[in-house]
Design brief:
The structure is a single chain. With 95 residues, the protein is mainly alpha-helical. Helices cover 54% and strands 0% of the residues. The radius of gyration is 16 Å and the shape is globular. The two termini are 30 Å apart.
């Protein structure tokens, strides 16, 4: 019998590391900054501007780097835009 893919176990493996858990904790802490209506509206406006991302991922990007103008994977920067990320650039986490 063939084993079924189990994304839950893969996610569990990801969060076994202290670094991943620390990053997730920081994201959750930062997301609590959006408590006022104006801040919440700005967040939703940002999500609308990043049409190529799922809403949840766009929110993750906004929490990590407020005011972000563009976001893409390193591969997309190379292949679609002919650019390369700066050496030592900090990657942003999305799901």
């Amino acid at each position: 019998m063939r084993a079924l893919w189990n994304p839950a176990s893969e996610q569990q493996d990801l969060f076994e590391t202290g670094v991943a858990r620390s990053l997730l904790d920081q994201l959750l802490t930062d997301s609590r900054l959006y408590t006022q209506s104006k801040d919440h509206k700005n967040l939703l406006d940002f999500v609308v501007r990043l049409r190529n991302f799922a809403p949840f991922n766009a929110m993750l990007l906004q929490v990590q780097k407020p005011g972000l103008s563009y976001a893409a994977s390193a591969r997309d920067w190379r292949e679609r835009f002919g650019r390369t990320p700066k050496e030592g650039a900090r990657p942003l986490m999305v799901s």
